[in-house]
Amino acid sequence: MRELHFKDHFWNTDVTSTVGYDSIIQHLNDGKRTCKEIEDFLKARAAIEEKYAKELLALSKKVCGSSEMNTLKRSLDVFKLQTENVSLSHMHLAQTMREEAKKLEDFKEKQKEARKKVEQQMDALHKQKAAQYKKTAEAKKAYEQKCRDKEEAEQNMNRNATTSSSKQQEKLYAKTQQAKQTAEEADRLYSQNVSLLGKMREEWLNEHVKACEFLEKQEVERINNLRNVVWTHLNHLSQQCVTSDELYEEVRKSLEQCNIQEDIEHFINLRRTGDKPPAPVPYENFYNNHRSAPTRSLPTTSGRRAAATPPSTAENDPLYSTVAEPGYSLIRY
């Protein structure tokens, strides 16, 4: 299938029309706007990545499992460290995106400067062509009018050839010759302007073809560059996922080394308080404890009177017991 190109499909039958060229320029201006939009997109995405990286870095500095010990503590330390590393990788990604946006901006400006020369040249040619066409049209109009004036003078001379005097005929003849010379001069100017317009048209045709080829080349470069920019951007995002997963894998490996029984035993060895539990608390009867308690004699000290002897009892006197007696009871049977 034959490939289509700008130079073959952006013409117009009107010699003064620039609609084909204008259509190409409008398309390239739209492409330049797309470059700016993608550039802004990359900058905005870089700002998001940077903000995320800073917040993630701040999060990695927060206390997390400070009271833990042994293997779980080591795993949590690795978890915090790799979180910090992930934040740094996102910060690097943000910087990479800014660099890609700067490259796209430079590419856009470079194309703009290169295209400016072509546009200025084509704009000048269009103005010259339009001016020459207008001049040619005016020359044609003047030429046609002079031709009509010559024909009218000739007809007037022929009509009065038999009725006018010789002097009048000489005047009519002179007028006819003057009209003929004026028409010939107008014809020469008109022909000259047509020739100049033809040369200018040929120059414009050649420059239009060159401009179409140049602008098509720019469009090819723009599309290819934008495709590569987006492709590279996605590669960076994919690489970030790979990097993050590698860092997270380090955490998973550390968690695999976390030994629950070892942590339990570590805590026991570090904080143990003893291996003997307290004995059962027995039930103690208040009265039994007091009855079985041994009697203690009060010590005698000098300067004090000895304890009085219990009074003697008669045969019919009631019996009393002392608390110290084994059979003591509040109830008398």
Q: Could you list some keywords that capture this structure?
A:
333 residues; membrane; mainly alpha; 74% helix; actin filament binding; Proline-serine-threonine phosphatase-interacting protein 2; FCH_dom; 6 helices
In short:
The chain has helices at residues 6-9, 19-60, 70-159, 166-256, 260-271, 286-291. The protein has 333 residues and is mainly α. It has a single domain (18-269), classed as Arfaptin homology (AH) domain/BAR domain (Substrate Binding Domain Of Dnak, Chain:A, Domain 2), CATH 1.20.1270.60.
Task: Kindly identify the CATH topology.
Answer: Substrate Binding Domain Of Dnak, Chain:A, Domain 2
Instruction: Determine the strand fraction and express it as a percent band.
Output: under 5%
Low-confidence spans: 301-305
The largest sheet is: none
Q: What value does the average pLDDT take?
A: 86
* CATH homologous superfamily title: Arfaptin homology (AH) domain/BAR domain
Give the class from helix and strand content and strand pairing.
Answer: mainly alpha
Distance between the termini: 136 Å
What is the radius of gyration? 59 Å
Q: Any idea what the shape is?
A: rod-shaped
State the domain count.
Answer: 1
Helix tally equals 6
| CATH-level-2 architecture | Up-down Bundle
Query: How many beta-strand segments?
Result: 0
Identify the quaternary structure here: single chain
